[in-house]
């Protein structure tokens, strides 16, 4: 089945892998060239290189992979003469019909030969495939391909209308596959071709449900059992790597920190408003705010405010704190300010509670320890390191999925029950 040598030789069939969706079969004939958008390649340059090699173009603008043919690659690369079966259906049919090494298989509807190549690999050298094709041109083309691929000893291809003329074999096939427009017309002929000494199986490949209904009726009328129908669909998933997702605890900590920052901002606004209001009513200030020189009081007051702003390290939002000092020194704290300081201390302790010691070790995130409050004192509680991967795999269904191809109708033909002769007891007759 195809060439088994390590290196490519003249006359071999190879599969050129251009892209994931562009594969092309090629027969190596020295003296010819293969031209594509990926460059130009002489057939003679491919002779002698191992199968699976990556070959660069002569101009250096592209490359291709030269692969050894397999039934899977041939299904993806073959020239379509008819609608073909793809890998999902082929694998399911082969398994359900129990096609294995040494099996005798009958196929009606050769078509482009996609299913035929897979079956011939499954049955091996000890099995055999009888294939029938109604269209003469397609039959001749398939016969040439089987001969070129070294499969002539495993297959017998016949140009024949099996719906009218039946099959050329009788009581031979372990499994039978029908890929016909009207499979119900071939059911009786298929029953004759299947072997009767053991359980034989049949599969009908039909695109429309109306065909399935008529086929099921014909199978019932012909004595087939265990009739069932399947539809093979693919659901490919797209796998991507992304950064690890945060845990619930980390999300909770971030929310708490956000609330703490919001509370800090609110308390600052309250403190700023309170101190700004006390400046206008405090008698201690007196005329200290009027300490302005006769030549340019406004400039001097503005300058003193700028100096205080630099000393205190405050921003524009705390402008109310710039003029609350009396002329003789600092103003005494009020009871409300003491409450604000206590709240600020609680907020600071809360932030310490949420602080974690984080380090990196070999691409893993290690959480070493955290500080907790114990009766007002910060105590460092050691905890075992938690290793979390920096990357995780996420999967989702791809939006474009290959839909319906055809319905697969399966049935079994049981061997006939043996005839049991009745022996009469002469002694009972005499009585």
Automatic annotation (TrEMBL):
Limits of the tRNA (adenine(58)-N(1))-methyltransferase catalytic subunit TRM61 C-terminal domain = 62-279
Q: Which GO terms describe its biological process?
A: tRNA methylation
Gene3D superfamilies associated with the record: 3.10.330.20, Vaccinia Virus protein VP39
Regions of compositional bias (Basic and acidic residues) in chain numbering: 305-314
Q: Name one GO cellular component term.
A: nucleus
Q: Does the keyword Transferase apply?
A: yes
Its annotated compartments are: Nucleus
Principal subcellular localization? nucleus
Write the record's keywords in alphabetical order, separated by commas: Methyltransferase, Nucleus, S-adenosyl-L-methionine, Transferase, tRNA processing
Primary enzyme class: transferase
The EC designation for this entry is 2.1.1.220
User: From the UniProt record, which GO molecular function terms apply?
Assistant: tRNA (adenine(58)-N1)-methyltransferase activity
The UniProt record lists the keyword Transferase? yes
Q: Where is this region: Disordered?
A: 268-339
Query: Where does the record place Polar residues bias?
Result: 278-292
- Please give the name of this protein: tRNA (adenine(58)-N(1))-methyltransferase catalytic subunit TRM61
Task: Tell me the organism.
Answer: Lentinula edodes
């Amino acid at each position: 089945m195809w060439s088994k040598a390590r290196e490519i030789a003249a006359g071999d069939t190879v599969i050129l892998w251009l892209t994931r969706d562009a594969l092309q079969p090629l027969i190596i004939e020295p003296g010819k060239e293969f031209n594509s958008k990926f460059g130009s390649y002489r057939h003679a340059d491919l002779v002698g290189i191992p199968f699976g090699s990556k070959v660069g173009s002569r101009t250096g603008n592209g490359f291709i992979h030269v692969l050894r043919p397999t039934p899977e690659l041939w299904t993806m690369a073959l020239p379509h003469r008819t609608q073909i079966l793809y890998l999902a259906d082929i694998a399911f049919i082969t398994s359900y019909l129990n096609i294995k090494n040494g099996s005798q298989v009958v196929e009606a509807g050769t078509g482009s030969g996609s299913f035929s190549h897979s079956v011939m690999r499954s049955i091996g050298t000890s099995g055999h495939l009888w294939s029938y094709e109604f269209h003469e041109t397609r039959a001749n083309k398939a016969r040439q391909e089987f001969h070129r691929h070294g499969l002539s000893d495993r297959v017998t291809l016949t140009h024949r209308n099996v719906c009218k003329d039946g099959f050329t074999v009788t009581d031979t096939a372990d499994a039978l596959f029908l890929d016909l427009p009207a499979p119900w017309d071939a059911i009786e002929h298929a029953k004759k071709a299947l072997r009767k000494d053991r359980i034989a199986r049949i599969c009908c490949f039909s695109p429309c449900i109306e065909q399935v209904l008529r086929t099921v009726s014909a199978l019932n009328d012909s004595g087939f059992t265990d009739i069932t129908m399947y539809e093979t669909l693919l659901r490919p998933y797209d796998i991507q790597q992304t950064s690890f997702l945060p845990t619930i605890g980390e999300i909770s900590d971030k929310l708490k920190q956000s609330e703490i920052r919001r509370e800090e901002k609110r308390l600052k606004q309250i403190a700023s408003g309170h101190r700004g209001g006390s400046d206008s009513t405090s008698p201690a200030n007196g005329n200290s705010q009027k300490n302005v020189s006769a030549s340019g009081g406004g400039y001097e007051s503005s300058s003193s405010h700028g100096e205080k702003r630099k000393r205190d390290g405050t921003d524009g939002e705390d402008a109310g704190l710039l003029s609350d000092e009396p002329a003789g020194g600092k103003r005494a704290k009020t009871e409300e300010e003491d409450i604000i300081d206590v709240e600020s201390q609680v907020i600071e302790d809360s932030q310490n509670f949420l602080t974690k010691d984080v380090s990196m070790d070999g691409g893993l995130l290690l959480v070493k320890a955290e500080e907790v409050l114990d009766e007002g004192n910060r105590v460092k509680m050691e905890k075992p390191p938690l290793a979390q991967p920096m990357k995780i795999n996420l999967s989702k269904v791809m939006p474009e999925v290959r839909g319906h191809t055809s319905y697969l109708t399966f049935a079994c033909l049981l061997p006939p029950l043996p005839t049991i002769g009745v022996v009469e007891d002469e002694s009972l007759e005499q009585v």
